[in-house]
């Protein structure tokens, strides 16, 4: 992985996003990769589920990343467990603690922290609660986007997502009323009609 970071520098790449296909921090060398990318002048962003982060990883993220997105998709432990397919009742709280730790560590850095919310029918009535939670955790941004044509794993073979668009739009609008200079709400809705 370190060779990749060096190749990116040689190729003149300015930035890179570490995400997709699984949790980046399953690889124990992730913090080392991020530090090397930073040393090589690459701006980086990471999307993580936040469950495996150590204090060292959190410090590395704060010091090296331009942004970090936490894939949360819920406002409550129960919904989080159902959506993620896990049985650990304490994991949601642990990830929220990790978010707060990163927010604190990022206070004097360029790192922006986001609460990411992939909208599916099972979490569509928790949007506003998730926005409030995200704000209370101190993140800079709340990002909502619906699962859809661009995520075939979740949507293959499904014809009706049973979205309550009126409720979704109302919750996003209420959430946007919580915006401040330091907290923004982004609700992507155009993907409901791909």
Automatic annotation (TrEMBL):
Write the record's keywords in alphabetical order, separated by commas: Iron, Iron-sulfur, Metal-binding, S-adenosyl-L-methionine
Q: Which SUPFAM superfamilies match?
A: Radical SAM enzymes (SSF102114)
Pfam families listed in its UniProt record = Radical_SAM
Entries under PROSITE patterns matching the protein:
RADICAL_SAM
The keyword Iron-sulfur belongs to this UniProt entry's keyword annotation: yes
Q: S-adenosyl-L-methionine among the record's keywords?
A: yes
Q: Which GO terms describe its molecular function?
A: catalytic activity; iron-sulfur cluster binding; metal ion binding
Question: Where does the signal peptide begin and end?
Answer: none
Q: Where is the Radical SAM core domain?
A: 1-184
Its name, as the record gives it, is Radical SAM core domain-containing protein
Q: From which source organism is this entry?
A: marine sediment metagenome
């Amino acid at each position: 992985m370190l060779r990749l970071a060096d190749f990116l520098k040689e190729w003149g790449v300015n930035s890179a996003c570490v995400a997709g296909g699984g949790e980046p921090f399953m690889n124990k060398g992730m913090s080392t990769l991020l530090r090397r990318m930073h040393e090589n002048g690459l701006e980086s962003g990471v999307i993580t589920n936040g469950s495996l982060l150590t204090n060292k990883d959190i410090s590395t993220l704060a010091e090296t990343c331009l942004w970090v997105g936490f894939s949360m998709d819920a406002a409550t432990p129960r919904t989080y467990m159902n959506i993620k397919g896990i049985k650990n009742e304490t994991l949601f709280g642990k990830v929220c603690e990790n978010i707060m730790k990163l927010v604190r560590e990022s206070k004097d850095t360029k790192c922006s922290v986001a609460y990411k919310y992939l909208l599916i029918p099972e979490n569509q009535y928790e949007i506003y609660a998730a926005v409030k939670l995200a704000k209370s955790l101190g993140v800079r941004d709340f990002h909502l986007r619906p699962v859809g044509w661009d995520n075939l794993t979740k949507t293959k073979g499904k014809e009706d997502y049973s979205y309550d668009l009126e409720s979704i739009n109302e919750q996003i609008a209420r959430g946007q009323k919580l915006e401040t200079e330091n907290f923004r709400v982004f609700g992507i809705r155009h993907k409901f009609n791909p």
